[in-house]
Amino acid sequence: MKFLQTELFGEVFAPESFLELTELVIINNSGRYNNVRLWRGQSNIDWPIHSGAYRKLINSKPNILENDIINYEESLIKQARHKGYGKLYGNEISDSELLAKLQHHGAATRLVDFSKNSLVGLWFCVQANQDKTGLLLGVHTNFVGGGIEGVLDDRDYSDLTKDLSKYDHPMFIETPVVSKRIAAQHGVFLYSDVSGIKSGSLKLPKENNANLSIAITAKLKLECRKILIDCFDIRNETLFPDLDGFSNANSTNSDSNDMFRW
User: Fold this and answer.
1) What is the pLDDT of residues 207-220, one digit of tens each?
2) Rounded to whole angstroms, how far apart are CA atoms 91 and 41?
3) Is 187 exposed, middle or buried (0-12, 13-18, 19+ CB in 10 A)?
4) Torsion angle, alpha carbons of 193, 196, 202, 207, to 10
5) For the chain, N or C: smaller number of CB within 10 Å?
6) CA angle 160, 163, 169 (to 5 degrees)
7) Is the pLDDT of residue 33 over 80?
8) In what helix (H) or strand (E) does residue 197 lie, and over which residues does it extend?
9) Are 198 and 48 a contacting pair, CB within 8 Å?
10) Where do runs of H (alpha helix) occur along the chain?
11) Residue 146 phi/psi, 5° resolution?
């Protein structure tokens, strides 16, 4: 197995084939009984893991503090509810559900997208910037706090963000299926207060083997992308099963052959 030295994530694994990558994903080196990780793919390994809210605010202010994120999100939630977006099938949804809904429709929040499915994370790593080395990150669930898988988290915003600075790990949240995208992508979220670490605004666990960082080279991206489409039916059309996703898959920037596998 080769390794790659990176500026943001230190020394990371650099598999040379899909099979090598699969071995890394399934081998449990965490020292814990289970081998459950949450996965995030980024198409460029030189990108820090910043939340959308952090990236939005950093454009107008050089030093983003936790209160900046809180003030922004509280305003976002109030505006969204005022416009009627805080209801689903006539029922009021929680602040956490609303943030997730806004996130999946393109709004910037502190929530950082992860997937319970490593192959979905891999897709988001390989589907763009195909001339760049990407990152597949797996965070072991034994080293995150917050909510519980499959259990409704209906806290309001103040409870969601209370005392975040006391913790040196990210918080987990899994909302009900407020959109087809969340279901298709096995979508969950990690969040934290604003981190000062080099890898980005999201806090990552500090324990050994809590984070599995894998470099996906440009060459490996091509191999993985074809395997994901041909063998697992993982592609934009299946991960974005709504009108916006369908339209985007048929935009001027898409390959006309991508809509069909054979």
Assistant:
1) 988 999 999 999 99
2) 33
3) buried
4) -110
5) C
6) 85
7) no
8) none
9) yes
10) 18-26, 52-58, 66-82, 95-104, 118-126, 157-161, 180-184, 218-232, 236-239, 243-249
11) 90, -135
Whether 254 is in a domain gets the answer no
The answer to whether position 256 is within a domain reads no
Q: Rounded distance, CA 142 to CA 140, Å?
A: 6
Q: What single letter denotes the amino acid at residue 163?
A: D
Binning the chain into helix, strand and coil, the percentages to the nearest 5 are: 35, 20, 45
Q: Is the dihedral of CA 19, 25, 28, 31 positive or negative?
A: positive
What are the backbone angles phi and psi of residue 37, rounded to the nearest 5°? -125, 155
Average pLDDT score over residue span 77-86: 96
Residue listed under structure tokens 């943030």: 99
Domain span at residue 35 reads: 2-249
Residue 199's nearest CA partner among 17, 54, 72, 1 is 54
pLDDT band per the 50, 70, 90 thresholds, residue 178 = low
Can you read off the two tokens belonging to residue 238?
């299946």
Q: Which amino acid is at 113?
A: D
Q: What is the mean pLDDT of the chain?
A: 91
E strand or H helix that includes residue 138: strand 134-140
Percentage of the chain beyond pLDDT 90 is 68
pLDDT in tens, 133-167: 999 999 999 999 987 887 777 788 999 899 999 99
The domain total for the chain is 1
CA 235 distance to own-chain centroid: 16
Note whether residue 34 is domain-resident.
yes
Q: Is residue 51 part of a domain?
A: yes
Phi and psi angles of residue 102, each rounded to the nearest 5 degrees, phi first? -65, -40
